[in-house]
Amino acid sequence: MFKASFTRGGNMTDSTIQDQIEALQTQIRYHERKYYIDDQPEISDQEFDRLMKALESLESAHPDLITPDSPTRRVSGEAVLGTRVRHRGPMLSLDNTYRPEELYDFDQRVQKALPEQAVEYVTEFKIDGLGVSLLYEEGKLVRGTTRGDGVYGEDVTTNLRTIRTIPLRLTPIQPMPAVLEVRGEVFIPRERLDQVNRQRIENGEAPFANARNAAAGSVRLLDASITASRPLDIFIYTLSYVEGPDINNHTEALTRLAAMGFKVNPHTEMHASIEGVIAYAQRWTAQRQSIPYDVDGIVVKVNSLRQQEELGATAKSPRWAISYKFPARQVTTQIEAIEVQVGRTGVLTPVAILSPVRLAGATITHATLHNEQELIRKDIRVGDTVVLERSGDVIPKIVAVLTEKRSGSAEVVRLPDQCPACQAPVQRSAEEAAVRCVNLACPAQLKRRIEHFASRNAMNIDGLGPALVEQLVESGRIRDVADLYSLEPTDLATLDRMGDKSAQNLMKAIEGSREAPVTKVLFGLGILHVGSNIAELLIEHFSSIDALAAASSEDIESIYGIGPRVAESIVSFFQQPTNQMLLKRLKTAGLQWSTGTDSLSVPSGNFFAGKTFVLTGALSVMTRSDAIEKIKERGGKVSSSVSRKTDFVIAGDSPGSKYDRAIQLGISILTEEALIEKLSS
Ligand code: IVH
Questions:
Q1: Closest approach atom of ligand 1 to CA 94
Q2: What is the DSSP track for 227-257?
Q3: Nearest by Cα to 20 from 32, 8, 4
Q4: Which of 13, 129, 179, 294 has the fewest CB atoms in 10 Å of its CB?
Q5: What residues line ligand 1, using a CB cutoff of 6 Å?
Q6: Residue 140: its pLDDT value, please?
Q7: What is the DSSP letter of 412?
Q8: Ligand 1, atom 18: nearest CA belongs to which residue?
Q9: Which CATH number fits domain 14-72: 1.10.287.610, 1.25.40.10, 1.20.1270.50, 3.40.50.10680?
Q10: Parts of the chain with a pLDDT under 50
Q11: So what CATH class is 612-680?
């Protein structure tokens, strides 16, 4: 390794000092590359800082020897935004496809335009960030521009210089091109965005809605020192102009770019046919959550530059490339109205009625706004344009309001003082965020209780959805869940859209639900705070609903994982005479009331049997309930909190405090990928 002689005293001429400065710069550039680009640091951070300090002190003693491409000059002065720059060639966009089959059509078009020629494809990630163009002359960065409208971009050189993975001076290769323009995508790794957002919230600033906005916002700041503090990164995806060496194909260009010190994405692959491309698209669709930065799809490119030229481009996009977009996880849409729903426990929830949008493979029309505080905190109004996200969970959520798109007529909505279903006055409590209708006879609550009772994770009564519940309650045919078990086919015959066949099926489903295990019955009762995991813990401990009904708050709290709030809610439920009567009728109807023989059928002898699992974070391939069900089918237990009894914690994306606790207790962590592998073996 180069040994700097900067500590040596004596009279040095400017030319030896210049040599030293250059030698230090070369050394620092080398280590920056090792650290930021190759991810293989060779020296410690302290050693690196020492080199940097040495260079800084030499430069400050000899300011005339400072060059703009010195590693000390990443943050240099104030950015002058707003300078429009015309791109050398337009920065085209890509044609998008949304179904893997459409890639066959792309292949057909390419084959047709290149008859009798073998075509090789390259696949890459489509990074979801900010497209930029970088111009180098004699190996030095002279200009960086945003993509802008594709023809004109904005000069953001000062800010882009602060990104450590953008070389200010290139590593020389032979032959070294005199002029070179590359294009790439600036992004912020997901985990780093969370840190930035936590900091912003602490500072009272609005968090960024997503990594793309954060990257774009950071590159377009007036103060480059703030840009420098943002964890920005870049992947270069194309060599758009080069004066000098002949290059025959895209992969060769990428290899050269990497040799010159650019950061290129390591997940690029070559394929001899479109089948390989489709397999790549499918593989990464399933694994996208494992990528630590946002990728919104894949890009397919014809590898040969000669063939690219032959294929040409339309005004908008090249004919030699196409993107396959993953099902979106984030979209924008408009709030058409805000409705108030009454839940089974009487809680009033504001719900946004949205202009329908496709998101992650489903059409979304509603999103919960949780509670009044949330409505106020996010300042969500009717008419607003909002960013909607579906992460591992199936439930879409509004992550941000685009206030800049708000019109003057956007309407503020607050929860009413009267229940919208029964007009009883609502209760607002100081310690709870919830606004409640406390009228036990409220028909809206009753409908929700029945829907919950019939739902898949409870009694699983197929066919008994909200529309039917609405009719059954409104027509007075059922007044509580026990009435379901005395329904006659004639009760159903006169209902809307209820043919003989559906009536028979529903009767069968109700009949079948008498066999649902006691844990499902308990969960189905809809006791406040008793979810399916807690129901299982309770039955595991008490074995029957009667034993639980007779238990004291202390008895219940003695179960690990159950706190006083839950225990109190259970005791209060069983104390109410109306509930006692309901329970009696359900028991008489023949529902399962205690653990019977079902524990004998628990499978054994596989990885999951007898082990306890805790899930944290968002899963991307499976849904959470799917994962839980599959673990249980194999004889595993799923618990809601991490303790020494936990065998494995399954960590999805952005895992929470359960993950930290697992690390503390030394509990093994499984990724979603590992879980899937275990499930399928
Ligand atoms: S190639 C002419 N490759 O996607 C083809 N673009 O709609 C130019 N992008 O704004 C694009 N990752 O900034 C290409 N691996 C990749 C990319 C990529 C992200 C962005 C690009 C542009 C948009 C194209």
A1: 7
A2: HHHS--EEEEEEEEEESSS---BHHHHHHHH
A3: 4
A4: 13
A5: 92-94, 124, 126-127, 131, 147, 185, 237-238, 299, 318, 321
A6: 95
A7: E
A8: 126
A9: 1.10.287.610
A10: 1-10, 392-393, 597-600
A11: alpha beta
